[in-house]
Specification:
Alpha-Beta Plaits; alpha+beta; 12 strands; 5-stranded antiparallel sheet
Length: about 575
């Protein structure tokens, strides 16, 4: 049924069909009757007969209009109204048949209402209406015989009984036939109703299943949303874990602070996707902040940052140990951002319980670029980096301890040997002169035997301090063993080395050592050699300087001797002869 249509009952359908059929039949009958009477030239036209036909026709029209109105008003299915309408209709037809001389064929109009009643209501009400019609017909015919004395009842009774008997037998047959159709329709209606109920149940089940599916879908959608959130959080945590793992590995493997901080800056740039990452270190001696590592390449920006980095807001972060987050940077508050494209920033301190090292400053050109999670991650990184710097410094101190002689504070023999080989190779590659001096304290055993070993240690420390304080920053001094020392002079000729060593010898000889009641002086003997003037190999350079030292001791000590160059010249001549 289309949207907006009104359901039509079985009774309404039958009644509408009956009305249309009845109009067609009565119209045909009326026209046939009227034209036959008007054009019949043998008989005299009876005006009363024509008028009666018109009255009958109009009455039928009124009756059918009333029925149509009841059908449209949906009153036809009401039992009382249906019964009254049907009885009135049958009474009207019997009255017309009896008093207007329609003839026996008019009983055919009685069959349709009763047949429709049997189709719509069943056999019982239809048979009752047939009995009512039969009784009314007998009554009206008896009345007609009484009202019209001229009516020959003896001549009409046999004919009347024949036609009436035939009519009512046929009527009963029609009623029984229509009742069969009625019962079949009732059975079909019941089956349809059962099917409809099943369909309704199926529809309810399907609707319930759809609701269940919808609920499951919503739950699944909600679960998927939660899983997506969990996956995002897990991805973020994995990224944080990876970052912290990389930094932890750096802590355990990178002991150079410069390399470590460069690595951390690269990690921050890669993981957090920031515009700028800058690591700022604190110079404790000057109480000043300075840029250590940054990815900023613009010289103007670096200059602005460097000139304004020692501001109150950054020192507050370092002193309080609390990070700052600002997603709407005001350059009046953060002067180091003035004239630079900085809209959001995070600053966290690099510190441990023992020391404050500096700051990590990350910046972004977009507003509202950071959140508390970024601060939390960067703060963890800062703590790790603080520990890493502390470990690197401890490592460097350990390295220094391994290089330094415990008594004198200058380099030991092992570290000197490493530096010596490096410097010699460098001198050969870059073709510059390298001078070497070896010296020891004259009559050192006498100090130990006379004043004790503690005073002897003081003598060694004093000489180390005097010599090291008189050397250049590029010169290298080390304790070579016992009371023996060694000095390496890069970029120094033999004559320059001799002049410098002579000055050192003089300083030592003029020094006085005091220890409570003990006062003593000391002297030292020196041997000098040079590359390439005296020798061309590192081993020979050491050997020639050591030989010169023995010559100084043999010459009476407290003097400086230069390695003999004759051996070198002889060796060079021998090599040339072999090459020829």
């Amino acid at each position: 049924m289309s949207k907006g249509s009104v359901a039509v009952s079985k009774s309404e359908r039958y009644e509408l069909m009956y009305v249309k059929l009845f109009w067609a039949i009565i119209g045909i009958v009326f026209v046939y009757s009227l034209t036959g009477k008007l054009w019949n030239t043998v008989e005299i036209i009876n005006k009363k007969t024509i008028i009666s036909d018109i009255i009958i026709f109009l009455s039928v029209i009124v009756l059918n209009l009333l029925k149509l109105r009841q059908i449209k008003a949906k009153l036809i299915d009401t039992a009382q109204i249906y019964l009254v309408m049907r009885l009135f209709e049958l009474t009207f037809f019997i009255f017309i048949i009896s008093f207007f001389n329609i003839g026996y064929w008019g009983y055919g109009f009685v069959i349709c209402p009763i047949a429709i009643t049997s189709l719509c209501k069943g056999r019982s009400p239809a048979l009752k209406m047939a009995v009512y019609v039969f009784s009314l017909d007998l009554l009206l015919n008896a009345g007609k015989a009484y009202l019209y004395p001229g009516f020959n009842i003896n001549d009409s009774v046999s004919e009347y009984i024949f036609y009436i008997g035939f009519f009512y037998v046929f009527l009963i047959f029609v009623v029984i036939y229509c009742d069969g159709i009625y019962k079949d329709s009732i059975k079909v209606d019941r089956e349809n109703k059962g099917l409809l109920e099943e369909l309704r149940e199926k529809y309810v089940q399907i609707a319930a299943a759809q609701d269940e599916i919808q609920n499951q879908y919503e739950k699944s959608k909600e679960t998927n949303t939660k899983l997506e959130d969990v996956n995002k959080e897990l991805t973020k945590k994995v990224g944080e874990f990876y970052t912290l793992q990389q930094i932890s590995q750096a802590i355990s493997s990178i002991f150079d602070i410069n390399e470590l901080l460069k690595f951390v800056s690269d990690i921050i740039l890669g993981v957090m996707g920031v515009s700028n990452s800058t690591i700022i270190m604190l110079d404790e001696s000057k109480k000043r902040l300075k840029i250590h590592t940054t990815n900023i390449r613009d010289k103007t920006e670096i200059s602005i940052l460097n000139d304004n980095i020692n501001c109150e807001v950054l020192f507050d972060v370092l002193s309080s140990g609390k990070p700052i987050l600002n997603n709407f940077v005001d350059s009046d508050e953060y002067v180091f951002a003035k004239g630079r494209e900085v809209s959001s920033l995070i600053c966290i301190p690099l510190l441990t319980k023992a020391r404050k090292y500096g700051l990590v400053l990350i910046e972004h050109k977009y507003y509202n670029a950071f959140d508390n999670e970024n601060v939390r991650l960067l703060d963890i990184i800062g703590q790790q980096v603080g520990i890493a710097i502390e470990n690197a410094e401890l490592y460097q101190q350990m390295q220094e301890f391994a290089r330094i002689d415990g008594l004198t504070g200058i380099y030991n023999r092992l570290y000197f040997q490493e530096r010596y080989e490096m410097e010699f190779s460098k001198a050969v590659d870059e073709k510059y002169e390298l001078s070497l001096a070896i010296f020891d304290v004259d009559y050192f055993k006498r100090f130990n035997d006379t004043y004790g070993h503690l005073f002897g240690d003081k003598v060694i420390r004093t000489i180390a301090e005097l010599v090291s304080s008189s050397l250049r920053s590029t010169d290298i001094i080390a304790r070579y063993g016992g009371e023996e020392f060694i000095i390496l002079f890069p970029h120094t000729s033999l004559s320059e080395a001799h002049e410098k060593v002579e000055s050192l010898r003089s300083i030592i000889s003029q020094a006085i050592i005091k220890d409570e009641l003990i006062t003593a002086s000391m002297t030292a003997s020196f041997g000098i050699s040079n590359y390439p003037e005296c020798t061309v190999s590192p081993k020979e350079l050491l050997k020639s300087a050591d030989t010169a030292l023995y010559e100084a001791k043999a010459s009476g000590r407290n003097c400086v001797k230069i390695a003999d160059t004759e051996l070198l010249n002889a060796g060079m001549q021998f090599l040339q002869l072999n090459n020829q």
